[in-house]
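dumping this here before i forget
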Amino acid sequence: MTTAAMDRRPARRCHNALNSLHSTHYFSPDLGREMGALGVTHPRAVNFAARAAALGPVGPGTVTATFYSYKYDLVARHLPAVWETASPEKALAARVRAVDATLRRLLGEETLESAEMAEAARLALRAAEACSRSARPLYAAHADLPVPEEPHLAYWHAATLLREHRGDGHLAVLTAAGLDGLEAVVSHTATGRGMTPRWACGTRGWSREDWEAAAVRLRDRGLLDGDGELTEAGAALREEIERETDRLDTAPYDHLGEQGVARLTELGSAFARSAAAGGAFPADLVGKR
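structure:
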């Protein structure tokens, strides 16, 4: 590992802490309730409406491209039809209401009104100032949205910007590595840090046959062994993907500075731990099996 790669690990840890809290609303009953009030009830339609609304009334091609790991057939079953039920503007408002309710439930009013939350929001927004719109469609779409006034929502908004900024860069790296959407998921799951196959297939529209076919392709490339574990070459590729993603995502954290990154990581990690302890995520979400 190079010194440069090691230097970028604090930024990765900071991103991971923020992304964890950002992601809580995807598993929250509050999102289903708010979208359901608009008439959007299918869990996958809820997900697409919440995350894609910033792009406008887009169709399945755009969402499949920008989400990357979802099967086109699944996306096409819900888009663009969902916008006839709930406009992007209404979906965005419902998402913010759901995030507000979710964070209040998981973190509590005292944390939301704390000086630490206000500090975290300032730090995260400062980091996001250095994000770039170029070739980053999901980040750019969310960057056009207004920053909420309440500190906990401003913090979540900044976490969303930083998450999508890194994510857009990550997709470019996956493409350069020759991994299609499902191969990227299968290889990530093999690291033990990704979604279990049940969750990955269920949320992204892939069948177990699709999963096994992707695993065969990865075995043919020497990236997986016969037991579905990463080979030495596979582990090296996954680490190189993360290092290159780090490289494309340095600007926000360089802008914030070493002390700012350390403090934001400390605050963000504490919020994320509290959310996880409050049951934010399914117990069987992450793992190899």
